Amino acid sequence: MVATKTPVVNKLSLCILLFINIIATNAAYEPTWESLDSRPLPSWYDEAKLGIFIHWGVFAVPSFLSEWFWYEWQGANDTDCINFMKANYPPGFTYADFAKQYTTEFYSPSQWASIFNASGARYVVLTSKHHEGFTNWPSKYSFNWNSMDNGPHRDLVGELATAIQQNTDLHFGLYHSLFEWFHPLYLQDKANNWTTNNFVKDKTMPELYEIVQKYNPEVVWSDGDWEAPDSYWDSKNFLTWLYNESPVKDTVVTNDRWGNGDMCHHGGYLTCSDKYNPGVLQKRKFENAMTLDDASWGYRRDMKFTDVLTMDELLKTFIETVSCGGNLLMNIGPTKEGTIAPIFQERLLQMGDWLKVNGEAIYSTKPWTYQNDTITPGVWYTSAKGQQYVYATVLNWPSGETLQLGAPSVSEYTVVSLLGYTGSIEWRAGTTHGIEIILPSLTVNTQPSKYAKVFKFTNLGN
Fold it and tell me: How far apart are CA 447 and CA 441, in angstroms?
């Protein structure tokens, strides 16, 4: 027998294939938090800074108290809810009867997409299913309790996904509640102390796989996890599939609500609580999910003007959040007809106008050495291009002629400008440290924006 030699090119090919296989093996995530938490957060998310949250469901029909109406009425036996139902609905009226009034006749996904795009947000997160269990898409796992079989007779998720993904540069995401207040399978698993998970296997997890495969969301915003451990929810196996095999495996981001005890510890980014605004720099990326109506996430017919955050209040929350390394997820609640309340539209468009002038200090920025100023309250910092540029966002314009800042160290080459203002800005070094900015005389016609204003520093000292 004559010995043969493997051609050099074949050996090289085998080495390349082996190397690729090693890389692929190393890149595969395993169903452990150690492995899942090691996944780098896709860069688009940190760069985005602002998202729009949309709480929408059957709860928009009673639109009383909050999106927790059903639970408050028949779970907590809230007196106000009971009296509301007695005063306005006939005896025997059930929560399921509200579904046929969830009409959405004025729902225009293209109009919504246009408003969201104009807000300056970079991503949108729509409720696919809240704790009531009604799915805003024709789910195979929610017979007759979905938006195609009942109520709107439309695929609410799919229509907005198409409008966002085809007509804007926004990233589309979906909120999904793991649990349902009154689902019999869930209540049985709960009674069994989570030793069974029939609800997970037959209902909630199949839904999650379904919406990911059908709508390609780049945010999967989980909720309703807190009563049971992630071992019950099978969360880690879902995330392993999401990161390794799903159609959005390279771009998807997730939050931290995957089981009792996971929030603020595990997941793609941290939420830690609703309306989480720590005020100090965080070690991990976080998101401040908050709502324009300070009393509810869902639409309320009895919402008052004073319940809605002012633009000054909204910008304060936004700027503080970004300065400390977070994103803001700003929530609105549409009506049962599918409209967005004019006051919500106004806030979104005001935010967009502000960002047109000052977005340079927000998008793709990083936290600076200081998050807020050392001597003047209401001044928050961000930086860009390796701290080549530093931005000071001033929430309250000073009444005097100068602005004293203690955090920036100046040099002879320091340049100060005011975003959106064409004139030059004069300054002098502080008496002992920092900088003293000579404020320009601004009029209604020359001020760059009505609300918070941003100073940009170039060539600061060390």
Answer: 9
Cα-Cα end-to-end distance for the chain: 75
Q: Are 287 and 45 in contact, with CB atoms under 8 Å apart?
A: no
Going by C-alpha positions, the residue among 351, 381, 284 that lies closest to residue 46 is: 284
Q: 């600076």: which residue's tokens?
A: 368
Which regions of the chain are under pLDDT 70?
1-27
Per-residue pLDDT tens digits for 130-145: 999 999 999 999 999 9
**In the chain, how many H helices and how many E strands?**
14, 14
Between CA 38 and CA 33 the distance in angstroms is: 8
What pLDDT sits at residue 432?
85
Query: What pLDDT sits at residue 23?
Result: 43
Considering the chain, what percentage of its residues have pLDDT values greater than 70?
94
- Report helix, strand or coil for 381: strand
The contacts found for 160-166 with CB under 8 angstroms, 24 or more apart, are: 160/109, 160/112, 160/113, 160/124, 160/126, 161/215, 161/216, 161/217, 162/109, 163/109, 163/110, 163/112, 163/113, 164/109, 164/113, 164/116, 164/124, 165/216
Q: Among residues 288, 335, 357, which one has the least CA distance to residue 343?
A: 335
Q: How far apart are CA 329 and CA 324, in angstroms?
A: 15
Q: 73: helix, coil or strand? A: helix
Q: Which amino acid is at 195?
A: T
Distances (CA, A) of 460 to 204, 407, 415, 423: 53, 11, 8, 20
What is d(CA 6, CA 22) in angstroms, rounded to the nearest whole number?
22
- Which amino acid, 376? T
- How many residues are recorded in the chain? 462
Q: Quick one: pLDDT at residue 424?
A: 93
Residue 228 vs residues 37, 134, 273, 388: alpha-carbon distances, Å: 20, 21, 17, 47
Taking only the tens place, the pLDDT of each residue in 184-212 is 999 999 999 999 999 999 999 999 999 99
Rounded to 5°, the CA angle 84-89-91 comes to 110
